[in-house]
Fold this sequence. Notes:
Two copies of one chain form a homodimer. Chain A is of the alpha/beta class. Chain A has helices at residues 16-29, 39-46, 54-72, 87-97, 109-115, 120-125, 156-169, 183-195; strands spanning 4-10, 34-38, 77-81, 100-106, 147-150. Chain A is globular, with a radius of gyration of 16 Å. Chains A and B meet through helix 3 of A and helix 3 of B.
Amino acid sequence: MKGxxxxxxxxxxxxxxxxxxxxxxALLERGCRVEVLDGDEVRQNLSAGLGxxxxxxxxxxRRIGYVCRLLSRNGxxxxxxxxxxxxxxxxxxxxxxxxxxxxxxxxxxxxxxxRDPKGLYARAAQGEIANFTGISDPYExxxxxxxxxxxxxxxxxxxxxxxxxxxxxxxxxxxVDAEGYRPEEEAExxxxxxxxxxx
Amino acid sequence: MKGxxxxxxxxxxxxxxxxxxxxxxALLERGCRVEVLDGDEVRQNLSAGLGxxxxxxxxxxRRIGYVCRLLSRNGxxxxxxxxxxxxxxxxxxxxxxxxxxxxxxxxxxxxxxxRDPKGLYARAAQGEIANFTGISDPYExxxxxxxxxxxxxxxxxxxxxxxxxxxxxxxxxxxVDAEGYRPEEEAExxxxxxxxxxx
Lengths: 199, 199
């Protein structure tokens, strides 16, 4: 099987890690080799010493992209879950990796602030955390992601289904449950991929 | 096929990159997935900004080890070619990676100085390059490498044969030309692996 990179971008708390793990489980079940590169964990392993300036964030994202590229070209599905706030850095990874599918984990800030399980948004609002994406640092949403999941109002299962179905439609993973898709889901995915020039 | 990491350590100019590429070609021919992580190239991608202090070298080696681990556990043969002068950092990678085979590219300093195709040893001797391994920075040779190749007096083919035969004996790659080994080569490899507790 050919590898590819599934890149989850979105604000802190928008569900990137959760979706990464769920998609990983689904793909392992389908016989794929999968590796999840989770932002925080990767930072420790590849980017200790880097901070949260734009330059440091971009370097971190480039390094994750480099590892995704090595894995993808060796038949592995690399799933990156990283805020990756800057469009340019994401575009550079897309260009370098080739088989690259972007998922925008879109969740409105009010919902994130209300959930805030780690209390990070509260601390950022009080100025205790500098350069906090969405509060005191920019987030540039993707303009043409292959998938948008609305993690503020859709449940995990719905988001995972849309991601998997998109991968199936792109011919990146074997389809197993196309029958189970509702016509409106199917139509939305087809419309997006058509807009992007895939279909 | 199970992945593993082949780690080539040795002084600058000792033939690590050459052997990495030769072994890569041989393993590709045998149907393996292979990725070469060459020290200089990886430094650009993973460790820009790091210098050549012990701490920075160790961080660089740990990062290469992390990538090798991800590749290896996904069925890829990761071949690292990096000076990796410190025993402790190499041992940490071995422990983290598991399926790890160390190759010591052993070449005496006089030969390296005489060859010196890039003029690095001459510049280091004149103090133009600080922290140059073997001249102004330590190199701790491996105590128990799976393979020792004497790149100062053995030709590339001999070195590659010994590496491949060791991988075959360890059951890491399919054997194709065991018949072609001379009894004394075979005996040397068997002796080393027995000393290490493999056989």
